[in-house]
Amino acid sequence: MALRFLLGIDTGGTYTDAVLFNPEEGVKARAKALTTRHDLSEGIRGAVDNVLSETGTEPSSIRLASLSTTLATNALVEGQGGRVCLVMIGFGPEDLERDGLKAALGTDPVVFLPGGHNVHGHEAPLDTSALTGQLDALANSVTAFAIAGYFAVRNPAHELRIRDLIRETTHLPVTCSHELSSKLGGPRRALTTLLNARLVSMIDRLIGSSEDFLKARGITAPLMVVRGDGALISAAEARLRPIETILSGPAASLVGARFLTGLDDAVVSDIGGTTTDVAILDEGRPRLDENGAVVGGYRTMVQAVAMRTYGLGGDSEVHVNARGLEGALTLGPRRVLPLSLIAKLHGASVRDTLDKQIKATHAGRYDGRFAIRSGLPDRFASGLSPADEGLYARVANVPIALNDLLLSSIQKASLDRLVSRGLVHISAITASDAMHLLGRQGQWDKDAARLGLELACRIRDGSGKPIASSAVELAHKIEARMTRQSSEVILAASLGEDGVENIDPAKSVSIDRSLNRTPGVVRFSLALDRPLIGLGASAHVYYPAIAAMLGAESVIPADAGVANAVGAVAGEISQTVLVTVTSPDEGVFIISGGGRTERMTGEKKTFDLARTRAREMAVRMAIDSGAEDPVVRFHEEIEAPEIEGQRKLVEARFAATASGRPRIT
């Protein structure tokens, strides 16, 4: 029998990884390529072609391709994404103040429409006039629409009417809140819908690039995508609900960590270019956050692994606080392009500019910093102000020094807005540059890293002394800061999983004394109760020291750098359907979810239908997604308190989850 191979792909902020996986023998080959944001297929092609050529594998022998990504997570952490119009039906401006919705919306437009439904699905009159007059203008200033209706989970009719109107007029992507969650909580559902709409174009580009490449290579296997809870979904589903791919990469890393180490209990920390993701393995399974994933400070309605994501990675921006007597370093949360990387990509011009800045008589305000276009299509620049548009026109596809780009202080704010829209990347010194200078990494341009660090040494602290006497000393300081800051975020995540949310490891004197091993009459110490699994391309660089600081055993698997790609093909397909029953009047029941809303009589008959509907729909969805022989888990909750001696049904919830391995022919 011919060997059957599975292809795992992980597209991260810096690298795209690929693994070739055989169910009988495990990982056969692995490869990395730089993520090419202007055309994601280039990075995918580079990684996949390498594993195919290394093994001589025929494309026809690949029976399943699976994709995980941190692009959605990174975008939310960095505050990036397309410009979206939020349409709220039955809500008022005061609802923007709840669940962080106003902060997430920022300057994006919002339209309020009368309408919506009540808890039993009965409608209020819908008036579309406030929207119809603006649609033509909005079509030219946003990339997508998000619709959230009052109690749309009970009756989505108004959301569907507005969706059809917008699609017919603008032909832009539209996300409805009832498609993403069946839970109550309108403002948080609106927040989840808004974030989903911001990610639609990005994930659509990624999946489209993957499908185009696979087809061009003669790989006809179905393409799956890792969801935030570690389960697999079809590429078509991921296109409709890209918000479900937040924490896709971290979830895949947990599945991969379990597969690669065999450990049932561990703290798993995955360091990438943009983020550090921390989660807990308990008895071989990742903990899930039933309240919804928190990413970029926003709690969504997306069920995902209980992963804490921090803006801390190898490419995190290095900040110097020069106000104190001793210059303090911090890393992140924003990712920048390492100087060593852009010098490798764009040749000697970067090194020459850095060299001129070092030799200049007077230091420039933005020495060691460059800007470059991200490569997004021009339509993503819609809605820019004249000032932002003028600055964007001066940024090219090759690096330009910020000293030459920014002619006034006010232009710095314009540049920050362009970066937040994902249109422009900043390049500056990072921890990756420090590691290149120290010889811990070597894939990019070491000379550019050295020049950038030498420029940074000119910064003086509050006492007038340079923050470091040499580039090497500064590199060691950055390394130490990465070790300490990583230890703090791992501790914060672990304490949070223990239910301790009121201790900030970065501010606790006791934790500081413990991590520094400070001697004294009172000796403080701490330790994790399980091993620390370090994942990521640079795990071997950082995690031995981090584990030592935390008093934990360090476990770094041989394939730590491609654990996400391994997890992408080691997961299961899983679909959950929630059906709810409410009772507006004595003896009358409304059943919602898993099909059309129905009005019925008889509690037992209604409950039996709800259970059957949930099970059958979950199995059908799992099979349609490619699951083989799905197994169903069932859970129900019935809220029916006695009021004045009579039982009153508030709400009954019936949830069925169907799971199974993907079909491999």
Can you offer a commentary on this structure?
With 665 residues, the protein is an alpha/beta fold. 36% of the residues lie in helices and 24% in strands. The protein has 21 helices and 33 strands. It has a 6-stranded mixed β-sheet with strand order 3-2-1-4-9-10, sandwiched between helices. Helix 19 links the parallel strand 25 and strand 26. Helix 2 crosses helix 7 and helix 11 runs parallel beside helix 16. The longest helix is centred in the N-terminal third of the chain and has 31 residues. The chain is globular, with a radius of gyration of 26 Å.
- Return Rg in Å: 26 Å
Shape: globular
- Put simply, the count of helices is 21
Task: Give the rounded overall mean pLDDT.
Answer: 87
Compute the number of strand runs: 33
| pLDDT < 50 runs, ≥5 residues | none
Q: How would a crystallographer describe the biggest sheet?
A: 6 strands, mixed
**DSSP helix fraction:** 25-40%
Spatial gap, N to C terminus: 12 Å
Structural class by SSE content: alpha/beta
The order of strands across the largest sheet is: 3-2-1-4-9-10
How much strand?
15-25%
